[in-house]
Amino acid sequence: MAAVTLKDVADRAGVSIKTVSNVVRGVPKVSAATRDRVIRAVHELGYRPNPSARRLRTGRSGLIALAVPNLTTPYFAELAQHVRAEAARLGLTVLIEETMGDAKEELRLATGVGADLLDGVILSPLHVSLDELAPVTHEIPLVLLGERGYERDRITADHVMIDNIAAARDVTAHLAGLGRTRIAAIGVTTTPSASARQRLEGFHQALHQAGLTYDPRLAPAIRRFDRPDGLLAMRDLLRLPAGVRPDAVFCFSDLLAIGAQRALYEAGVDCPGEVAVAGIDGSQEALYSTPSLTTVIPDKAAIASLAVRCLADRIGSAGPLPFEVHLAPYRLVARESTEGVRRPLPV
Amino acid sequence: MAAVTLKDVADRAGVSIKTVSNVVRGVPKVSAATRDRVIRAVHELGYRPNPSARRLRTGRSGLIALAVPNLTTPYFAELAQHVRAEAARLGLTVLIEETMGDAKEELRLATGVGADLLDGVILSPLHVSLDELAPVTHEIPLVLLGERGYERDRITADHVMIDNIAAARDVTAHLAGLGRTRIAAIGVTTTPSASARQRLEGFHQALHQAGLTYDPRLAPAIRRFDRPDGLLAMRDLLRLPAGVRPDAVFCFSDLLAIGAQRALYEAGVDCPGEVAVAGIDGSQEALYSTPSLTTVIPDKAAIASLAVRCLADRIGSAGPLPFEVHLAPYRLVARESTEGVRRPLPV
């Protein structure tokens, strides 16, 4: 039996081959009615796309990878959704990988090893260093996400990030502006992390601008940006003697802040009356927290769009392109956990 | 320049070709030291895996898809992590797809259309019906996740689920056992959903067993199992007159319950003093909620293991296999949102 072709499907559905190709590749720009007709024709004829045809024809798989530390971190799940949407617009399919923050795994993904079908990689690194990435980035088009703070003349890949120093400075200044004077930071990590370093830098700058002194007892070390670490760090802070105990906490992620809020709840400490809490990430979980969490919302759609378009340019380019750093916008949203006024969420 | 082969890498690293292949495919059973040596050899020689070699050699890509409604739903992000871990054990790579609950998209994924590289698909359907799936499931090995309640003689794919009727019955019985008599259900959907139907069935059974009468005013319709819908439904329930207003709410997902808890917080209603709340999913977010959320925890590792092994059997089988339904265990965990005793989380 001769193989059923795209043209057979197009004839049966009464549409162009291009339209069938769009439906088969999942490109969303086809109307629902046309899509139904194509899918029906695909079933009636028993058409199966040819696995190798596309790559043989174009030299490309149309597949890119998005590698994030952890999909159970709401920030990354939300970001992945934006990346998939933007990729679909360009006819690209996204393979989502989790590195679990493992530097070796990050390096493996950056080199494309183990991913023999990919046209390119978008990587949000946690622990792999620039020195490790430098020699390998020429093997596969690569875009890095997140706050690495590379010097422009040292970067060896495109880079999309928000200005984390400024964002951390804004949050801390917000807490100081509320009259809080013993502001703690939860997010200094036991292993080197560029995000932690940059956020701590912004924290320092804002303390200085507000005329407050940095107290290392108010910056406990944590391992990871997750709920349990926020809970344990806040419990420790609550054990500090009166006069040292913080009246506000800037957590370097929403999950840390959720954990900190839980510690306050367990201890019967009023938030924000006794201790104000702020995070960074802008997850929906933060909005629904009780009290709702003051946080920095990076523009995830902009980050995704910049990253995918950068990668697509690099994949489509015949020659080498200069590496660039793209800054995406963010905004600070003040909510109940710092402002104290309980009000219904606008839904 | 002759292409660098697996054998060249193996010689350089002083390991077997099989070991190089395992490292390159990301199979985690190689020691860290050996893996480092292989990765170094890969870089030194500039080895790139041959995109088509594996498929040409075995007829398989080693790639399976996991299609879930939404990765920003913690349950699915956590499940995806388990599926990836189990697949890695079998040397399979997982392509994660989001359907956003779109029936057409679910059908597309079930048929393998648009996914021309896959050996098989694990699909957690929300809205596609059995009638739509029945004629297409022979085109690609398929395992379905979640509570569809198919009759065994009608199923046309392997199926992995928990007993949702029993789970919903357990939660409702727990609320009734606390002496609550006006128990509401948030989760009846405006569009048909098998999960909602089964959980409502368990809810009915438990009410009946407890000698309570079902009051349709206590089962408001929602669109989706997410936070905003839980918030809006709970706000409506709180507007009911005294005597009708619920003293407990069983939410058909943790996200709905988080939204319901938020509505109680906004209204200054004590949880669980005035209204007890329970969910289903067992996400970490539920544990960190204030109060911590009573919920049903499906054994996600078991679900993932059953699903991946089922699919691998089907991919590896020369002939047709009978379709099976596999039940995974679950457990009900009572917490502050129903029991009222505030205590530190065990971390």
Automatic annotation (TrEMBL), chains A, B:
SUPFAM superfamilies: lambda repressor-like DNA-binding domains, Periplasmic binding protein-like I. PROSITE patterns: HTH_LACI_1, HTH_LACI_2. One of its GO terms (molecular function) is transcription cis-regulatory region binding. InterPro entries: HTH_LacI, LacI/GalR-like_sensor, Lambda_DNA-bd_dom_sf, Peripla_BP_I. CDD domains: HTH_LacI (cd01392), PBP1_LacI_sugar_binding-like (cd06267). Pfam families: LacI, Peripla_BP_3. Coiled coil: none annotated. Residues 4-58 form the HTH lacI-type domain. Keywords: DNA-binding, Transcription, Transcription regulation. PANTHER family: LACI-RELATED TRANSCRIPTIONAL REPRESSOR (PTHR30146), LACTOSE OPERON REPRESSOR (PTHR30146:SF153). This is LacI family transcriptional regulator.
